[in-house]
Automatic annotation (TrEMBL):
It comes from Tepidibacter hydrothermalis. Residues 411-431 are annotated as: Disordered. The gene is treC. Belongs to the glycosyl hydrolase 13 family. This is Alpha,alpha-phosphotrehalase. Residues 11-412 form the Glycosyl hydrolase family 13 catalytic domain. Pfam families: Alpha-amylase, SusG_C.
Length: 553
């Protein structure tokens, strides 16, 4: 049985991963075709984002049937074959469960809108207040979080798109339906679940305006969230010792994340939190242009390492996913020091305490795509905010620059398998225009180059399995106030790691703090992004983005 504490998860966005039937849309057989590639990388699980029946307004996170596969992705037989083939290669499947909301195309919502009281109570309908929405809460995709239904003279809640209606978790029937969905997929051999915005499902008893924010404080990490998660655990995956779970925690707190992931709480195995990926949001606003705040980034990474260690919680470690811009463009350099900075970013989190997640294409340094016209964006969040920024009078060019930096479509352009047209993703018309970088950034070129980013990730994964200090070691940040270097020590049973990362193109000098005693004669370089890194651990002249891991017996 796999131990999630020294496992690595690879995230696949099936719609953009590999199109086996050339309809321009990635599919499950496309995933099966690439399992040998994933085995070579060395990953333990593959997390698949939703491929269930959906109108695709939010690329599948608007689920219209939880237990049926959308024909564009294939059939249940294709799924079962993928699971079987993955297991043959030592890879387990993690599915994405979207339980905060359903699509308004779901039959439950359709029955609700037809006036069926049973199903109306599956959702959150409220009367207007003073002729307005029940509260002033904002959707995370912009605009009001409420949609009016004239037949009822009521509004329904949607924290995301208007076609994603929030479920009422206070309703026992809703919970039973959800438990049945999880157990259906467990019976299909699924060994992992990623729970979408799961910390938003506990809504308040009283709905009131938020005079200081967008309403998230009333439903984030809500009053009954731990009760709901304990019940979900008990009724489904908690009955199996070999199933791992990860909760996507939106705008959460450390205390809650410790409770969510401490094994004594019997809730989840681990959590995603996003505080480290908001250090380039100006005044907390994603839709701005700002260089990332490096000191704040280090503070967040270190505080979460030490806090979760102290509370026996467990972090997912990640830079990228289908909602985030490509990390090498965001915190690295996607031009001159593309390889060095991509490898440095990988090392900087893979040597931390937690379970690393690699997002498709990250393993060979896929970059942002700098999509230069709104017609070529597909992401509902990006298009909504384009319209909001336009309505605020912002200049078109400036808005496009912001989208090029922050849009989720950066991560959703077709996987670049080789230098052929469409990057080898499809021979059809891709649903989202491919980037222009596939000529030199693609999986095939990476596999042909022993110094590629791919083999750096492969080695990081191997190291995690070979050195207990990586999974179990105590974390200690060092030189926290250094403006360029992120460095830390890991220590376990007398063995140490010294991890040193220059986050910038300018040279930087690392000096080992005097209170850290390390016998240089016992130190060896485990991995570096340069072939000739120094063994002088007392004082190191770090080159552009140089990243070195020393192991001290
Ligand atoms: O994302 C939660 C969420 O808040 C995202 O919208 C993301 O954090 C934000 O776009 C960053 O600006 C989950 C899924 O990962 C996302 O793809 C879905 O759109 C969303 O929930 C609704 O299901």
């Amino acid at each position: 049985m796999k131990d999630f504490k020294n496992s690595v998860v690879y995230q696949i966005y099936p719609k953009s991963f590999n199109d086996s039937n050339n309809d321009g849309f990635g599919d499950l057989n496309g995933v099966t075709e690439k399992l040998d590639y994933l085995k070579l990388l060395g990953v333990d699980y593959i997390w698949l984002t939703p491929f269930y029946v959906s109108p695709q307004n939010d690329n599948g996170y608007d689920v219209a049937h939880y237990c049926k596969i959308d024909p564009r992705f294939g059939t249940i037989e294709d799924f079962e074959n993928m699971v079987k083939e993955a297991k043959k290669r030592g890879i387990e499947i993690m599915l994405d469960m979207v339980f905060n909301h359903t699509s308004t195309e779901h039959e439950w919502f359709k029955k609700a809108i037809d006036g069926d009281e049973k199903y109306k109570n599956y959702y959150i309908f409220k009367k207007s207040k003073d002729e307005k929405e029940p509260t002033n809460w904002q959707s995370k995709f912009g605009g009001s979080a409420w949609e009016y239904v004239e037949e009822f003279d009521e509004y329904y809640l949607h924290l995301f798109d208007v076609t994603q209606a929030d479920l009422n978790w206070k309703n026992e029937e809703v919970k039973t339906e959800i438990f049945d969905v999880v157990n259906f997929w467990i019976d299909k051999g699924v060994k992992g679940f990623r729970l979408d915005v799961i910390n938003l499902i506990s809504k308040p008893d009283i709905y009131e305006d938020d005079h200081v924010g967008d309403g998230r404080r009333f439903y984030t990490d809500g009053v009954r969230i731990h009760e709901y998660l304990k019940e979900l655990n008990k009724e489904t995956f908690g009955k199996h010792e070999d199933i791992i779970t990860v909760g996507e925690m939106s705008s959460t707190t450390m205390d809650n994340c410790i409770k969510y992931s401490n094994p004594d709480e019997k809730e989840l195995s681990m959590v995603f939190n996003f505080h480290h990926l908001k250090v380039d949001y100006e005044n907390g606003d994603k839709w701005t242009l700002m260089d990332f705040d490096f000191i704040k980034l280090k503070e967040i990474l270190s505080s979460w390492q030490m806090g979760m260690e102290e509370g026996n919680g467990w972090n997912a470690l990640f830079w990228s996913n289908h909602d985030q811009p490509r990390i090498v463009s965001r915190f690295g350099d996607d031009k001159k020091y593309h390889t060095e900075s991509a490898k440095m970013l990988a090392t900087s989190i893979h040597m931390l305490r937690g379970t690393p997640y690699i997002y498709q294409g990250e393993e060979f340094g896929m970059t942002n795509q700098y999509i230069d016209s709104i017609e070529n964006y597909r992401d509902v969040e990006s298009i909504n905010y384009y319209n909001i920024l336009k309505s605020e009078g912002k200049d078109e060019k400036d808005i496009i620059k912001i989208l090029q930096s922050k849009s989720r479509d950066n991560a959703r352009t077709p996987m670049q398998w080789d230098e052929s047209e469409n990057g080898g993703f499809t021979e059809g018309e891709p649903w989202l225009k491919p980037g222009k970088t596939h000529k030199h950034i693609n999986a095939k070129s990476a596999l042909d180059d022993k110094n590629s980013i791919f083999y750096h990730y492969q080695k990081l994964i191997k190291l995690r399995k070979g050195y207990d200090v990586i999974s179990n070691g105590k974390y200690k940040p060092i030189i926290e106030d250094d403006k360029s270097i992120f460095a830390y020590i890991r220590e376990y049973e007398g063995n140490k790691l010294l991890v040193v990362n220059n986050f910038y193109p300018e040279e930087a000098v690392f000096e080992l703090p005097e209170d850290i005693q390390i016998d240089k004669s016992k130190a060896k370089i485990l991995i570096s992004n340069y072939t000739d890194s120094s063994n002088e651990i007392q004082k190191i002249d770090l080159r552009a983005y140089e990243s070195i891991v020393y192991y001290i017996e």
